[in-house]
Amino acid sequence: MSQIVVVVLPWPPAALSPNARGHWAVRYTAGQKAKHNAYWTTREITARRKPKFRRGAEIPVYIVFQPPDSRRHDSDNVLASCKAYLDGIAESLNVDDLAFNPITVFRAPPAKDGLIAFTIGETK
């Protein structure tokens, strides 16, 4: 039996980039909005079929990012920008985000406005 959840979210705001040099309050507000968005998007996706993940089990996460433009985007910076998204998804699934292991990041060709697709799954 496998438990798979796919959550597609918008490209994270620039304020969440590790390279951003803005005021801490702007970063905090952007992070709270991103976490909220991820939480409610995941709740909506799992409303009909709530996945049950085993306590203490590692849950693999695959992240595919499609940037909004053709500029170079480092995978590690994109992953760091997605921390609030991962926190919101974990909270919605009622799992500890420490269980997200391994986290694998893939780069895809640019998409209009950019997007991040998270595939969270556990295969028994």
Write out the strand line-up for the largest beta sheet, numbering strands in chain order. Answer: 1-4-2-3
Helix content: 25-40%
- Extract low-pLDDT stretches: none
Largest sheet: 4 strands, mixed
**What are the secondary-structure elements, in order, as H or E?**
EHEHHEE
Q: Spell out the CATH superfamily.
A: Holliday junction resolvase RusA
Query: What is the third-level CATH name, the topology?
Result: 60s Ribosomal Protein L30, Chain: A
Task: Please tell me the CATH architecture by its name.
Answer: 2-Layer Sandwich
Describe it for me?
- It is globular and about 40 Å long.
- The longest helix is centred in the N-terminal third of the chain and has 22 residues, at 24-45.
- The chain has a four-stranded mixed beta sheet.
- Helix 1 packs parallel to helix 3 (83-93).
- It starts with a strand and ends with a strand.
- It is 32% helix and 27% strand.
- By secondary structure, the chain is of the alpha+beta class.
- The protein has helices spanning 24-45, 75-81, 83-93, and strands at residues 2-10, 59-66, 100-107, 115-123.
- The protein has one domain (2-123): Holliday junction resolvase RusA (60s Ribosomal Protein L30, Chain: A, 2-Layer Sandwich).
What key phrases describe this protein's structure?
124 residues; alpha+beta; 60s Ribosomal Protein L30, Chain: A
Q: How do you describe this structure in short?
A:
Strands 1-4-2-3 form a four-stranded mixed sheet. It has helices spanning 24-45, 75-81, 83-93, and strands spanning 2-10, 59-66, 100-107, 115-123.
